[in-house]
Write a structure and sequence with these properties.
The protein is an alpha/beta fold. It is built from 16 helices and 7 strands. It has a 7-stranded mixed sheet, with helices on both faces. Helix 8 runs parallel beside helix 9, helix 9 packs across helix 14 and helix 15 runs antiparallel to helix 16.
């Protein structure tokens, strides 16, 4: 009975934490809907007046980006902004042949009169954070725009973002990501679905009420003074963008989020690349929770509600650990429920997961219908997409939970950048990409075992108890079976 009690307590705690997170998402939805009714009039720099035009530095941190460097540089060279007030820094840590490709292309652009520099370090200390910090030492710009190698900002991007720095308290202007290869595969559709919710529901929902948001590592502009005042870039977490964002906002710098300014980018098309990205994001989130939790709680200049949203924001990735706990313990709980009739009253807590799922369903629907409309056909497509997304997200829960645990325990690891593919259309292929991992992680084997474990969970629905089975958790186990099966088989087969 002691073991059953421990299982019930752990299971219930994880469910309640997921429910609290869902309530926070619901609050962000209300904030988002409220923000749509308001038409704020922010003061803006008049870029048509040469006296007001500030100097801007564009930083391009890159590392072994053979497939996308020419595309990146050609795109950035077309940015519309007074040439006398613009410089471009290619912060190149590359160690392969892409270095020469980049150097040669930069020379061609320099011959065309573009102020573009190839900034090189002796080592990769602190990875991306170190490269950004090194470039900042010699940056001439009052404002620093940052783009990762797979981003393709439109020509008028600076003209639409820089004006918002008229308010001297604004330290960052962040734009929304869009996706040039959204419909390439099921994997890219699921990633786009999740990111769209973040860049609409979460960023707008937090920013509209003055809660902390994060610079997303790319497709945004920093005020150089803000970076320095917040303590500059640091490499002690895998998400240096989230780290500096919180340090800046704790120093009362304001962030401006522009949902209507989109910056196209390429989504990972191979599951190994998506796994690399997910691991870095989720571990970095946990690392930043350790680093920032007490600073947020002790800060006297922010409201209690902002502190709650801030802590839940930093705990985003930890929800994967709660989901994994609920998933793994759901099968023992199924047997406990049907073998100990006197404990059935405790199982009302299971309804928390159903309610949480419904809350997520409603929140994501509002984001989906804004893009695709609210027709019956659109709603049916949304239902299929939501179930697919939810299943695959749970399929990633073991992988992401390991990242989260490492982050909370303070285990350090290198910054592993996400391989880029130069995928622009459905016809483009990723095969032959030299940056893809060829080995299978041990985690993949455990994901295969979890797929079988949840197949057993579905079987259990037919045999537990003496009332002809219990099918309450069958849909949950079916989604878990599909999610872990998808991640398992994709990880085995998606190799160059």
């Amino acid at each position: 009975m002691i073991l059953e009690t421990i299982i019930i307590i752990i299971y219930s705690t994880a469910l309640i934490l997921i429910f609290i997170y869902a309530l926070a998402q619901l609050n962000l939805l209300f904030n988002y809907l409220s923000a749509q009714k308001k038409q704020g009039k922010a003061p803006k720099i008049d870029l048509s007046n040469p006296i007001e035009v500030p100097f801007v530095t564009i930083q391009l941190p890159v590392y072994n980006e053979l497939y996308v460097m020419k595309r990146l540089l050609d795109n950035i060279s077309k940015i519309e902004y007074p040439k006398s007030k613009l410089e471009i820094q290619v912060l190149d840590d590359s160690t392969d042949e892409s270095f020469e490709v980049t150097a040669n292309h930069i020379k061609k652009l320099q011959q065309n009169g573009l102020d573009i520099k190839h900034v090189v370090r002796n080592d990769r200390k602190n990875f991306k954070a170190g490269a950004l910090k090194e470039g900042l030492k010699v940056a001439k710009g009052e404002f620093i725009a940052i783009f990762d190698a797979d981003f393709l900002p439109k020509k008028d991007w600076l003209m639409r973002t820089i004006p918002y720095f008229k308010d001297t308290k604004v330290g960052v202007v962040q734009t929304r990501w869009s996706h040039i290869n959204r419909n390439y595969s099921l994997l890219t559709k699921v990633q786009a679905f999740a990111l769209d919710a973040h860049f609409s529901l979460e960023q707008v929902g937090r920013n509209s009420k003055g809660h902390f948001i994060n610079f997303n590592g790319t497709a945004g502009v920093w005020r150089k003074q803000c970076i320095i005042d917040a303590g500059n870039w640091e490499g002690d977490t895998l998400t240096e963008d989230l780290d500096l964002s919180y340090r800046a906002q704790l120093k009362n710098w304001k962030f401006k989020y522009l949902e209507d300014v989109e910056t196209p980018a390429e989504l990972p098309v191979v599951i190994s690349a998506a796994r690399t990205q997910q691991f870095r994001w989720n571990k970095g989130g946990a690392e930043n929770f350790r680093k920032m939790m007490l600073k947020v709680l002790k800060n006297e200049n922010i409201s209690a509600k902002t502190k709650v949203h801030g802590l839940l924001h930093l705990l985003n990735s930890t929800m994967f650990l709660n989901v994994l706990i609920v998933a793994v313990l759901s099968i023992p709980m199924l047997y406990i429920k049907n073998e100990h009739a006197h404990l059935k009253m405790y199982f009302y807590v299971m309804s928390f997961f159903v309610i949480s799922t419904l809350i997520f369903f409603v929140c994501y629907w509002y984001m989906f219908k804004k893009t695709y409309g609210s027709s019956l056909k659109g709603f049916m497509q949304y239902m299929v997409m939501f179930i697919t997304f939810f299943s695959i997200a749970m399929g990633f829960s073991l992988h992401n939970s390991i990242a989260v645990i490492e982050g909370h325990l303070g285990k350090r690891s290198d910054f592993i950048r996400t391989p880029k593919f130069n995928i622009n259309s459905l016809k483009d292929s990723w095969k032959g990409n030299k940056y893809l991992k060829k080995n299978i992680s041990l985690n993949v084997i455990f994901e295969g075992l979890l797929m079988l474990y949840f197949a057993f969970g579905m079987y259990s629905a037919f045999v537990v108890g003496d009332q002809g089975g219990d099918f309450g958790l069958f849909p949950f186990h079916l989604m878990l079976f599909f999610g872990f099966g998808y991640v398992f088989f994709k990880s085995l087969t998606s190799k160059a």
